Amino acid sequence: MPVSVAILGPTGYSGLEIIRILLRHPEARVAYLGGRREERPHIADIWPSLRSLLDLRVESMEPEEIPPGVDVVFLALPHGVSLQYVPHLLGRGFKVVDLGADYRLKDAAAYKKWYGLEHTDPANLTRAVYGLTEFYRDQIARADLVANPGCYPTSIALAVAPLTKTGLADKATIVADSKSGISGAGRQPSEETHFPECNESVAAYKVGTHRHAPEIEQTLTEISGDPWRVCFVPHLIPMDRGILSTCYVRLKQPLPTEHLQRLFAQFYAREPFVRVRTDGTLPKTKDVWGTNFCDVAVRAVGDLAVVVSVIDNLVKGAAGQAVENMNVMFGLDEKAGLL
Amino acid sequence: MPVSVAILGPTGYSGLEIIRILLRHPEARVAYLGGRREERPHIADIWPSLRSLLDLRVESMEPEEIPPGVDVVFLALPHGVSLQYVPHLLGRGFKVVDLGADYRLKDAAAYKKWYGLEHTDPANLTRAVYGLTEFYRDQIARADLVANPGCYPTSIALAVAPLTKTGLADKATIVADSKSGISGAGRQPSEETHFPECNESVAAYKVGTHRHAPEIEQTLTEISGDPWRVCFVPHLIPMDRGILSTCYVRLKQPLPTEHLQRLFAQFYAREPFVRVRTDGTLPKTKDVWGTNFCDVAVRAVGDLAVVVSVIDNLVKGAAGQAVENMNVMFGLDEKAGLL
Amino acid sequence: MPVSVAILGPTGYSGLEIIRILLRHPEARVAYLGGRREERPHIADIWPSLRSLLDLRVESMEPEEIPPGVDVVFLALPHGVSLQYVPHLLGRGFKVVDLGADYRLKDAAAYKKWYGLEHTDPANLTRAVYGLTEFYRDQIARADLVANPGCYPTSIALAVAPLTKTGLADKATIVADSKSGISGAGRQPSEETHFPECNESVAAYKVGTHRHAPEIEQTLTEISGDPWRVCFVPHLIPMDRGILSTCYVRLKQPLPTEHLQRLFAQFYAREPFVRVRTDGTLPKTKDVWGTNFCDVAVRAVGDLAVVVSVIDNLVKGAAGQAVENMNVMFGLDEKAGLL
Amino acid sequence: MPVSVAILGPTGYSGLEIIRILLRHPEARVAYLGGRREERPHIADIWPSLRSLLDLRVESMEPEEIPPGVDVVFLALPHGVSLQYVPHLLGRGFKVVDLGADYRLKDAAAYKKWYGLEHTDPANLTRAVYGLTEFYRDQIARADLVANPGCYPTSIALAVAPLTKTGLADKATIVADSKSGISGAGRQPSEETHFPECNESVAAYKVGTHRHAPEIEQTLTEISGDPWRVCFVPHLIPMDRGILSTCYVRLKQPLPTEHLQRLFAQFYAREPFVRVRTDGTLPKTKDVWGTNFCDVAVRAVGDLAVVVSVIDNLVKGAAGQAVENMNVMFGLDEKAGLL
User: Fold this and answer.
1) Rounded distance, CA B324 to CA B317, Å?
2) What is the band of B224 on the pLDDT scale with cuts at 50, 70, 90?
3) Quick check: B189 and A194 CB within 8 A?
4) pLDDT digit string (tens) for chain A, length 339 residues
5) How far apart are CA B134 and CA A137, in angstroms?
């Protein structure tokens, strides 16, 4: 019997991407969609691309209305909304994968500082498992509630972990310079994402103040058993999808590129979705477009290691990793539906 | 003494473009900006590109506040707004170039039909001169009020007039298939113009129902002394600027391409801003990017003449032609500031 | 046992797309790749996106080297090359789907006129079935050699056939104005496809002289049992993928939009990959991005019917339709691997 | 009498941009164009945008053919070519502004290392003045030969100099992460710049090995009187023009953002083309599109100063700064033709 899935928030880009992936998933099916529109529109009226592919209306978001046969609920909701639903969803016995930010920061005070809201569900915050699959696979397998990582933190943690976790990195501030396609800003129109404003232009934004910064530092610290500081600067790139993060890590002692490449290749040798370049090429975001892969390359430059990683922000950075986590939670092949 | 210019509506794309052109104009200067924001922001806070180039605040739009030394007022306002200001502006002795649609359709009933508003200034509607410079130069020179043409009508009328005005075109419906950059939709964010919605995509819109359709038919009819029907279909292209119109005109009798090229070259031989291709190349919008030119090529295909024209929608399609008309109105070199 | 597939020409965009589709196909697998590079590169060195997904080298193109277990050979080759290989491939007992142009025009003289080459395989030209699946399904099921349609002809024939085949269309020249993403130009760099030349620009090209024009006319004529003339003008749009064709067809007598919509909906009611819009919306190319769908809308404008169709030029316009045809040839579900 | 200008290499993007700027320059005129094509094409056949604006053919590149009345020669040539022409041009009494790389690196051995060529004109290498106008204005005023800076070095040196020159920066390796539009790669088509390869994608390239790296280090060292190491990583962005450089500089001791902003504002207070943001906004490349401005913002993030600078790579990063230098060399207003 396939895993039965409900999606709350199917009208945003991550929601659509979950649907797209699950339509091809051999062991899961989309059973329920929940949103806020009173008129309960057909999903094909929201996304014409789904016409003839998925015959569901966007029903209520109320947990009581979700059919009991559902196994897992994906939340693709703004921060501050998920935490209102999670206790009820868990209470009704659903597993939950939250693509939003509400359960990522372990510290409720940090949540309040960065998101400006009191965290009203601290109990589940403690139980939630951070869904960076490569590093939390075992906990995810046992989890009821997975906090799916942010897109930037995924691209940066996967790039930097082989250096921080192995003790090669010096404790100097790590620089993480990320370039993201504009779908990362969500589906709500704004001046920043109005085509003639962002096309033919690059912009840095939230320099050192983006909400993903504490998430990145928390993750590196947890993975590496040591506190790390990261200077994170995101940029908006005139393209739909993709994140390229260029990370600059000071090494305790210089190492040649070949050594670093070998290290990275070994580090990720058994990971199905991390591909390390050792052939002298560098990844571009198009190489992972529409896929759940993270491609990584590393170079030695003076006393720094420069790591370049690319992901599709909507797949490995959101919906794909969410499905990957679902696969782990339900004992399926981790790659099911994702190749 | 330079011509002193006020601009009402400098916060949109056409408004910015008027400023950019006038900053380089040898015989005009921007003296006043008027808008609706109560805080009267500095123009460089609206458009950072203007920092250190223009030291003006966006003051009130009220005609009484415009300094008496101003010679001409450019209106870059939504339809329905210009007609509230024009009578007062003319009454205060300013000349007016209206980049909006309020004075383009000569028939107040047609205005009501297409724009959904009663025309409250029919007297000036009669006096207004349609600012397609190539065809109304003499009237523009004597005009107080110029209705600057729409971007699509400019590109289409210039493409088709050599065939309709010379009696070569059959009376079958002319097909005008236009492709426009997204700045043509204005600066107001919307789902249609949200980057991830319109990037990597082409869309037709308002098939046969766009408000520029009656303007095109009116213009061809006025120029050619005969009623014409046009099937006009606009498309949104993922680029900032530019309109390419491909016009399909049935000829009374087939003519070879060379003949048509010669005809077009002669027709526009004395026009400073229409360049006819006779060398076998076809124009692309980038060839006229940022300029006031309209480049045109013509081909015979069976019983049809296919005419391809390109303009920059913000220049020849808006601000540039507005300045061109100002030049004519004030007896300046028509090309001043525009090369 | 899955259908075993060889691909000759896997280093172009269509070749990659065939691979991508077949990697997800439940009843087919890629068994052999053939190209011209002497060094026989690994496919992942050509396409880094395929790393860890397909472990094949690009071997020789010689028919003798293709393993006998292969069932069908896809040709993604320049015109003039396929016809050198097809006789040998058929002779070795392989079925063939040719994505190129060599077997599309039924008339060898027309082939010579438009492609500048003598057709050296007229026998198979006669046997080849044109792979516009919607109209040639039965013949395709029995065919050994399928000539997969061009991208533009697919988008235009599907748009116009409901009017020509039903006798509603007048015999006036049909105007087909197509807008294509730049992947349609292939993978060979050129000035026209150099990013700073074609980005932020629209261009018409080969006005009335594109090689797809006779293919379109042949197809409409065959489908509708009557000769048709089409004025076909393609345009290059700054995006990777997608074709939107706007077709202007004069009707024998005017019909309301609702009538036309109903007609189209009935015409394609049983087609799995043609979706007719009857809800007042218009399709954009993004709605079919990466899919095998053709979305169509129709409007009445005066005495014309305006039909807008969108496809992904690399899927329904090339690799997807090729796989669709393979499915038909091998008695599989026509939709297998394509949803 | 206007300055009379010859341009060798007018068929590339920088060459076109010099022409565009000089066409609006009140005190200079383009008198001669020299290139390599034997057929001596009209410049409007190379650049249709120049039709009716500049009536010159592209003549020979031989110094003897340049008319004696020419005052200054702009070289927009590949590296290794300029140094073959410069001695002869200077010998004939022309001043020279070289937009290429041949006279930028002061050390002939470094030139050989990075460009792979023996420097055959060491005498003029010594005389050449590096044309970063803000820092070498006095020498430029007296120079016969100006080596116009690279696009990346301009954006990075202007960003970082206020910290290195004032002694605030620690000597740790400076990270310079630059994002460039694709016109920076020149006009020669290649796989990297083929639209469907680079559109919808971001790529890092030449990580730590780009030829601009030694130029950046040389410039910072010369300006600041102290050796500096820079880890420079360029990226290709799917847009025509613009460079955004994000520079990460460790401070000797942390300083608040306000302090840094004030410092930058004072540092560039008298510079006409450097605009420091002190209002909390960050610059995007579109803010300087088509202009000679460099907009700069600075933020304190932990122990780092993050400096974001934007330029138009073809203007301040090439043709604009070249004209700025010409203005200085000939005692004109430095801003002439550039506002």
Assistant:
1) 11
2) very high
3) yes
4) 899 999 999 999 999 999 999 999 999 999 999 999 999 999 999 999 999 999 999 999 999 999 999 999 999 999 999 999 999 999 999 999 999 999 999 999 999 999 999 999 999 999 999 999 999 999 999 999 999 999 999 999 999 999 999 999 999 999 999 999 999 999 999 999 999 999 999 999 999 999 999 999 999 999 998 899 999 999 999 999 999 999 999 999 999 999 999 999 999 999 999 999 999 999 999 999 999 999 999 999 999 999 999 999 999 999 999 999 999 999 999 999 999
5) 71
Say which residues have a Cβ less than 8 Å from residue A290's Cβ, sequence separation at least 6.
A241, A312, A315, C290
In chain D, residues under CATH classification 3.30.360.10 are 151-313
**Lookup: tokens for B118:** 């009663």
pLDDT in tens, C8-47: 999 999 999 999 999 999 999 999 999 999 999 999 999 9
Residue A294 annotated in active site: no
Angle at B233 between CA B227 and CA B235, to 5 degrees: 150
Question: Residues of C at the B interface (Cβ-Cβ below 8 Å)?
Answer: 172-173, 175, 177, 179, 181, 197, 199-205, 207-208, 229, 231, 233, 235, 237-242, 244, 246, 248, 250, 282-286, 289, 299-304, 306, 308, 310
Q: Is the pTM of this model over 0.90?
A: yes
Pairing of strands D274-276, D203-204: unpaired
- Rounded-to-integer distance, Cα B282 and Cα C207, Å: 9
Query: In chain C, which residues have pLDDT < 70?
Result: none
Beta bridge partners of A320: none
Q: Cβ contacts of residue C16 below 8 Å, gap of 6+?
A: C10, C47, C49, C50
Residue with tokens 């007296």: D142
Q: Is B202–C302 a contact, with Cβ atoms under 8 angstroms apart?
A: no
CB C179 within 8 A of CB C201: no
Alpha carbons A238 and C200: distance in angstroms, whole number: 12
pLDDT at A112: 97
Interface residues of A toward D, Cβ cutoff 8 Å, are 172-173, 175, 177, 179, 181, 197, 199-205, 207-208, 229, 231, 233, 235, 237-242, 244, 246, 248, 250, 282-286, 289, 299-304, 306, 308, 310
Tell me the pLDDT tens digit for each residue of C141-173.
999 999 999 999 999 999 999 999 999 999 999
Q: Which residue has the tokens 């139980």?
A: A127
Structure tokens given for A221? 């610290």
* Superfamily holding A151-313: Dihydrodipicolinate Reductase; domain 2 (3.30.360.10)
Task: Please state, as a whole number, how many other Cβ atoms lie within 10 Å of the Cβ of residue C162.
Answer: 24
Residues of chain A with CATH 3.40.50.720: 3-149+317-329
Residues of C with catalytic roles: 151
Specify the 3-state DSSP secondary structure of A221.
helix
Weakly modelled stretches of chain D, pLDDT under 50 = none
H or E stretch at B125 = helix B122-127
Contacts of D1 (CB under 8 A, 6+ apart): none
How far apart, in whole angstroms, are the C-alpha atoms of residue C85 and residue C96? 10
Owner of token pair 């002394």: B225
CA C22/CA A50 separation, integer angstroms = 21
The complex's ipTM? 0.97
Residue B208 CB neighbours (<10 A): 16
Distance from C-alpha of D57 to C-alpha of D41, rounded to nearest angstrom: 6
| CB pair distance less than 8 Å for C53 and A339 | yes
Q: Are A6 and A56 within 8 A, CB to CB?
A: no
CA A202 distance to own-chain centroid: 23
Residues of chain B above pLDDT 90, percent: 99
In this structure, whether the domain defined by C3-149+317-329 belongs to CATH 1.10.10.10 is answered with no
Count of positions (residues) in chain A: 339
